[in-house]
Design goal:
The protein is an alpha/beta fold. The protein is 39% helix and 17% strand. The chain has 4 domains: 203 residues, P-loop containing nucleotide triphosphate hydrolases (Rossmann fold), CATH 3.40.50; 156 residues, P-loop containing nucleotide triphosphate hydrolases (Rossmann fold, 3-Layer(aba) Sandwich), CATH 3.40.50.300; 60 residues, no CATH class; 90 residues, Alpha-Beta Plaits (2-Layer Sandwich). Helix 3 crosses helix 4 and helix 14 packs across helix 15. The chain is globular and about 90 Å long. The protein binds adenosine-5'-diphosphate and magnesium ion.
């Protein structure tokens, strides 16, 4: 395929060239070099796989603007995208590129905001509509949006639109779009559902894959911290404290978790806030605004809410939880290390997630480095030197001179050294207090199943493995009122106490019924209340777990 490394060779008009020059675009990114000439010269459909930060908006935006018939009022281009934020951002980007195209109308429409204002905007005419699918359908039904005359339909972040459950809306829109249109689909990943859309609604699309990863991704270093599940949040705080200049997106799994982590950070005095789909439009705008202004230093977000949002110079991307789909990891980490800056992507994991790190390494073809969670001393040192640097950098204004006589008098008796100690302690005592009690959050590489430890559900599990390697062993005397249930699962099956708790839960047994647990190489013993142990046996014996047929027997002692 043709590839160009100068915008001037692309055949774009001067209006557009001037506008992008002002934006500082010097040469096309790889995806732009591949897609723009094709869009200008041919008329085939395109499916383009490229990650965040590769410059997709201009890749479709510039040619689409080039082709716009400014004389006609009708809507000629429809851009569909998953979220409100993205909708606004694409609109902003297109407006920037078309700064010198007088009279152009680009109208964003998205859910979560008043529909009347959007109807009014559309009434004034829209050459380009940038929309989330649900709201667009609504507007079409009300006769406010008319897509019957569109020549180009763009689906941006198609995988995310489907993830968000926009399948039906997309189908409905694609059915209504005129036959003669050209369709472009952009996606970071190519799951079956996206392929289906391409198959059903696109004409023999040409596949374009940007093999080259994010411009930035080679500058990204990957680290992980391994902690106990219950120490995840404490580890996040340590990371934040160890990096006084942090400017990061913290990715969480769910909306609830996002809110919980953000609330906890706020309560603990950090400039952090949450971005997720349960917030109102106004709340989301305010959070994004503050983050972009750096009034917030940590944006705690779901993948969906943060998708496509363009924030440069992040110092860190933090995976508070690793994403469910490994591919999303690349997407997350690609947000740091942009524009040739160095970026850092961090994952906080528990012991069970190490395998996932290895799988991600396979996908990104880079190695993670395990870092120790910083301890009290390192953090306090780092914070102190940060504070001292800040103090050194402060500008001394004339205003202070009038107060100097009073200040001198009050501090007359203190030596410089004592004064420094007092000032730093004034700032720092709270920190020292917090970290005085701080424990070591690191888990030794080897600590796995055998050690005595608390399971998250609060079950006490003792080291069954006095000799871990033993196939089976003596679990000892059961607690009063409890009996042992012996099951043919053990360390060799990689079983963990929490798995046992889940198995019990699946049988309808709550944690109150479960006592001590002893695990050996190939057998384990679950202490169960006398009155339910037989029932548990009947549930487990003969059942399958992890493709293994279980046998269970009761041992009263
Ligand atoms: P994507 O949609 O692939 O995630 P964007 O279109 O949002 O990426 O672009 C990411 C960033 O790169 C934006 O800040 C954009 O302004 C910038 N950018 C895009 N193309 C170029 C270019 N040719 N030169 C310099 N910066 C660019
Ligand atoms: Mg984009």
């Amino acid at each position: 395929m043709e590839s160009v490394n100068d915008f001037l060779e692309l055949g774009l008009s001067n209006e557009i060239l001037n506008a992008i020059a002002e934006l500082g675009f010097e040469k096309p990114t790889p995806v732009q070099a591949m897609v723009i000439p094709q869009l200008l010269a041919e008329d085939n459909d395109i499916v383009c796989l490229a990650q965040t930060g590769t410059g997709k908006t201009a890749a479709f935006g510039l040619p689409v603007l080039e082709y716009l018939d400014m004389e006609a009022d009708r809507t000629q281009v429809l851009v569909l995208c998953p979220t409100r934020e993205l909708c606004r951002q694409i609109t902003q980007d297109l407006s920037n590129y078309s700064k010198y195209m007088d009279g152009i109308r680009i109208v964003p429409v998205y859910g979560g905001a008043g529909i009347m204002g959007q109807i009014k905007s559309l009434e004034k005419g829209a050459h380009i509509i940038v929309a989330t699918p649900g709201r667009l359908l609504d507007l079409i039904k009300r006769g406010a949006a008319d897509i019957s005359g569109i020549r180009t339909l763009i689906m941006d972040e198609a995988d995310e639109m489907l993830n968000m459950g926009f399948k039906e809306e997309l189908d409905a829109i694609l059915e209504q779009a005129p036959q003669g249109r050209r369709s472009l689909l952009f996606s970071a990943t190519l799951p079956k559902e996206v392929e289906m859309i391409a198959k059903s609604y696109m004409k023999d699309p040409q596949m374009v894959t940007v093999g080259q990863r994010n411009a930035g991704s080679d500058n990204v270093e990957h680290f992980y911290y391994m902690v106990r599940e219950e120490d995840r949040y404490a580890a996040l705080k340590r990371i934040a404290d160890f990096n006084p200049d942090i400017y990061a997106i913290v990715f969480c799994k769910t909306r609830e978790q996002t809110q919980k982590v953000a609330d906890a950070l706020q309560k603990d005095g950090y400039d952090a806030d949450a971005l997720h789909g349960d917030l109102s439009q106004a709340q989301r705008d305010s959070v994004m605004g503050r983050f972009k202004r750096k009034a917030l230093h940590m944006l705690v977000a779901t993948d969906v809410a943060a998708r496509g949002i363009d924030v440069n110079d992040l110092t860190h991307v933090i995976n508070y939880n690793l994403p469910q789909e490994i591919e999303l990891y690349t997407h997350r980490s690609g947000r740091t290390g942009r524009a040739d800056k160095k970026g850092v992507s961090i994952a906080i994991i528990n012991q069970k997630e190490k395998g996932k790190i290895r799988r991600i390494e396979g996908v990104i073809r880079k190695q993670f480095t395990r870092l120790p969670v910083p301890g009290a001393r390192e953090i306090c040192e780092k914070q102190l030197s940060h504070l001292i640097n800040e103090i050194n950098g402060v500008e001394v204004r004339d205003d202070i001179y009038t107060f100097m006589p009073v200040i001198n008098e009050m501090w007359d008796s203190l030596s410089k050294e004592d004064l420094v100690k007092k000032i730093l302690s004034y700032e720092f005592n709270r920190f020292f207090d917090y970290y005085r009690k701080a424990k070591d959050l690191n888990i030794p590489e080897k600590e796995k199943r055998g050690r005595k430890k608390e399971v998250s559900e609060g079950q006490e599990v003792t080291a069954g493995a006095k000799d871990k390697k033993a196939r089976d062993g003596d679990p000892g005397v059961c607690e009063k009122g409890f009996s042992w249930l012996r099951v043919n699962l053990g360390y060799r099956n990689k079983i963990l106490p929490r798995d046992i708790i889940s198995i019990m839960k699946a049988c309808g047994l709550g944690k109150k019924s479960v006592g001590r647990i002893e695990i050996f190489g190939e057998f384990l013993y679950i202490g169960l209340k006398d009155n339910i142990v037989d029932y548990a046996k009947s549930q487990l014996d003969g059942a399958t777990y992890d493709r293994r047929r279980l046998s269970a027997s009761v041992l009263r002692k």
